[in-house]
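User: Just a sanity check before I run the rest of the batch. Below are the structure tokens for the first item. I only need the designed sequence back.
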């Protein structure tokens, strides 16, 4: 059986552009780069924009009733009513020690180990304060993430209504964002 294994390299050392190119060309490696806030787009004022929130969770498994969040990442962004993303703000990224050990399969999938989360916690009040101003919440795999997020903090279930979850479509890369004023989950 031919299996493809992807390796994630977490390193505090900076790689040369040549090293990145070699790794990106290999089918065995996936290069992840830190998302950095960018300068706001000129010409929009706060009254013409809304706050969006891109979220992602890593968990100890697939069942939101039994498994737990071990990492929560949120990236706030401002978008204009025409859908243009005008500012990416400082991200929120926290690890959390679960009540049970992280399985080797989850560590292999996420890159998160028991050592990394040891003694770490995610403050639900900090999460609520960070997420509450968002007009829209977007997740790549919203059908999965939403259940864990709603269980973790009521801020993710407040005034959402019966809105179906969808995966994000990558529209953020194209500098477009949803403009729904009535629901927080597109």
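Assistant: Here's the designed sequence for the first item:
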């Amino acid at each position: 059986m031919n299996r493809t294994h992807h390796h994630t390299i977490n390193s505090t050392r900076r790689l040369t552009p040549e090293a990145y190119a070699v790794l990106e060309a290999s089918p065995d490696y996936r290069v992840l780069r830190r998302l950095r806030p960018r300068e706001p787009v000129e010409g929009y004022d706060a009254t013409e924009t809304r706050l969006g929130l891109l979220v992602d969770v890593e968990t100890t498994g697939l069942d939101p009733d039994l498994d737990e969040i071990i990492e929560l990442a949120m990236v706030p962004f401002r978008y204009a009513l025409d859908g243009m993303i005008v500012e990416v703000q400082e991200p929120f990224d926290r690890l959390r020690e679960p009540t049970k050990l992280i399985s080797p399969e989850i560590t292999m999938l996420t890159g998160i180990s028991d050592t990394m989360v040891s003694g770490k916690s995610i403050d639900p009040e900090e999460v609520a304060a960070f997420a509450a101003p968002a007009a829209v919440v977007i997740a790549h795999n919203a059908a999965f993430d939403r259940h864990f997020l709603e269980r973790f903090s009521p801020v993710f279930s407040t005034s959402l209504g019966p809105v179906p979850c969808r995966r994000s479509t990558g529209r953020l890369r194209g500098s477009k964002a949803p403009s729904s004023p009535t629901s927080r989950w597109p």
